[in-house]
Fold this sequence. Notes:
The protein contains five helices and seven strands; from the N terminus they run E-E-E-E-H-H-H-E-H-H-E-E. It has 177 residues and is an alpha+beta fold. The protein is extended, with a radius of gyration of 29 Å. The termini are far apart.
Amino acid sequence: MRRTAARAGGAVMYSGADAAAPAGTGPEAVPGPGPTQVPPAAPAPTQAAPQQQYELRTEFPFQLPRGYVDESGTVHRDGVMRLSTARDELVPLRDVRVQENPAFLSVVLLGRVITRLGTLPTVHDGTVENMFASDLAFLQDFYRQINAEGHTRAAVECPHCAEPFEVELGGSRLGES
Length: 177
């Protein structure tokens, strides 16, 4: 038996396998204050404590080192990749191409998370499959940066002057570290 929030004339409605209300709460019950009455909402405080706003960034722009060349010869370099979901990582595992060749996993996965590439109307695994190897390596590294680590910066301190600063550990371009 479950109690629903729907009220008809101040009475609590019950639903379930046996819709019988508990003793003392049926139509013979005397209306009045009790579990069926909801107290009025308290007014909001005039000065609320400042809340820290956390904005989750889900899309990240990138620029391919070489660029994808479409069938008309147009080079597409600027794109956007979104954060991956669990579904994005699970669905490709059912793909026959991935089951036959596990190296194909990154191609299918990248085809799901790249939301824009140049002026292409859509991006899919066939697009990623026809990219240059250097662009594929760049996208794999970029995927790891935004999904696994979030970022690859570390706070350090200069050993000579003790000035704090950040360094990029992952490198921003292929081959850098």
